[in-house]
Amino acid sequence: MVRQYKQQAYQESLKKAHEGLIHPVLTCIRLTRACNIRCYYCSELYVPTGRDLNFEDWKHVTDVAYDLGNRDIVLSGGEPFLKDFLVDLVRYTASRDALVSIATNGRLLTREKLASLSEAGLDYLCISIDSFKQECPENWGKVLTSRLNGILKEIGKSEYNFETQISTVVTRNNLEDLSEMVRYFSSLGISTKFMLMMRNKINKKATENLAIQDNDAQIRKTIDSLLELKEQGALLIDDDFTLERVNSFFNGTRSHNCKGGEFDLSINNDGRLVICPDGIVSERSVFELKSIENYQRFIEECKTVTDQCGGCLWSHKQRLEESIIRGEHK
After folding, report:
1. Quick check: 309 and 284 in contact, CB under 8 A?
2. Over residues 127-143, mean pLDDT
3. 43-80 pLDDT, tens per residue?
4. Cα(first)–Cα(last) distance of the chain, in Å?
């Protein structure tokens, strides 16, 4: 499904990072902080924002990331489909040998948009769904609505030129349902990946009732069930190593320091550079990164903040760095 020349370019980017070059391997672009739903656990709600950049600005941003050696660009938010230029930005960004993904809650997807994204060259569509339960407390996470379920069925039976993944944030409210969700999405031919709910300074109070610390027995039961499903062929992206360490994440014995975000270029909706998802945004603009040396100096500046950090659980950052350490380009 994924275009081979793009995958090769991404693997080359990973290889350079593995060999010691500090450059962005993953770029996350938040087109807006606005969203059409409001999930309690979402840290993005509390991050300082300015005015959203326009379409021409975002084209320039993707140029900067590409010129720094990045070959994996995620268009996110907030909700990126609130921007009417999203498909055009995908087309522009995908015209080169860089993987292009969209992270969305899926509420604004239509069959027409799916067809347009496929034609524009999108590589991955990542839809965030946290529960099947319509009776769940309002806004605790993203529920699979009947309309969105219809969209997923359409994706499952159609041959779009992109891969679709479900991203599920693990909380107390859905821990017991994860296996059922994986089974269902697998039946549609769609993969699932899990994100660990972050609790930090800016969202700690809002997530008190969603935390699953001190629930070792249920965590272990869920992990064993997921490992069994994987062995049976379920479409679960998380590898065995990731699943096995979930318990240590939640009991506080494993944390992660991003070392200044060496390989993760994170861009705020107003073009400023994000140092940490815990609400720390630099006054520096992405447009100041005119060379790899500028990027490396920015990373060193970030370490004055992140070196004071005791570690976090931002799983996508840790997965990225571990894939580099393990040399997964080979």
Report:
1. no
2. 78
3. 777 787 899 999 999 999 999 999 999 999 999 999 99
4. 20
**Which residues make Cβ contacts (< 8 Å) with residue 317, sequence separation at least 6?**
256, 258, 261, 264
What burial class does residue 137 get, using C-beta atoms within 10 Å of its C-beta: 0-12 exposed, 13-18 middle, 19+ buried?
A: exposed
Calpha distance 327→329 (Å, rounded): 5
Side chain identity at 134, as an amino acid letter?
Answer: Q
pLDDT at residue 44, as a whole number? 77
**Topology of the domain comprising 4-325:** TIM Barrel (3.20.20)
Domain ranges for the chain, please list them. Answer: 4-325
Residue 76 in tokens: 């996110």
Tokens of 259: 């070392």
Q: What is the distance between the alpha carbons of residues 193 and 172, in angstroms, rounded to a whole number?
A: 17
Q: How far is CA 31 from the centre of its chain?
A: 14
Q: Cα separation of 86 and 80, whole Å?
A: 7
Mean of pLDDT over the chain: 86
Q: Specify the pTM.
A: 0.91
Return the SS3 of 54: coil
- Distance (Å, whole) CA 279 – CA 262: 18
